[in-house]
Amino acid sequence: MTLRGNPAARRAVGLVLVAVAVSVACVFLGRWQWHRHVARDAAIQLVKQNFAADAVPLGELLPEPGAVLDPGDVWRQATVTGTYDADAAVLLRNRPVDGQPGFHVLVPLELADGSVLVVDRGWVAWDDDASGEVAVPEPPPGEVTVTAHLRADEPASDRSAPAGQVQAIDVAQVLAAGGSEAESYGGYGAVVDEDPAAAERLGALPEPSVDPGSHLSYAFQWWTFSVGSLVAFGWLARRELLEGAAAGDGSTPRAPVPPVAPRRRRPSDEETEDALIDSQSR
Fold it and tell me: At CA 227, angle to CA 224 and CA 230, rounded to 5?
């Protein structure tokens, strides 16, 4: 019997096709989450390796002004000596620390050749309602040796900000907001230590997150859904076939229906009276 003449079989095949489609989609979604997990794990290992590495002179990682930080050197420590340009200090907006509103303090460090390295010196708290003025401690005066974790530029922001503030640590935007035209490096430093230290220290910058996230568990969930869809839709397809066979449109012939005996008609009153007269006349 063909599928055209077997509705139950058609429904069962449709369920199987849906099961395959859903299962394949879940497999690919699981692979996508798995690749995200692998990429995140690689990034975490790089951070752990570089964050704990010994500091090296800045020139070993950024040999000259305009040089761009290699992605494999992100979070490595570098030492550099120069003088802070306090007049070109800029505040980075919308970067709360542990839920506390505040600003990062970005100050260009001027080197002996006149170039600058933008340094994130730390953060300063704002009012809880983020409405008051912010008092920013001064950087150490004169020549200072800075040890910093090197970071790549953040994407430039197209959002506006008040004078002397920025929305992202993009070196070009930071220098423009501070009114500096000095040549810079393709990256910035997140301060670890200053020698000599400032009279008033800023809040310490948070360490990078090494949380792997939920990508691995999501991958296994999608793969579980893939297997589950095959089982669930397969069971539904089997039920369709069994119910179709019981209804007679499957391969098993329908059981014969026993004939129904004709219902006897009740005699009318006239017929009953005629029968009574006939019996009396005999």
Answer: 145
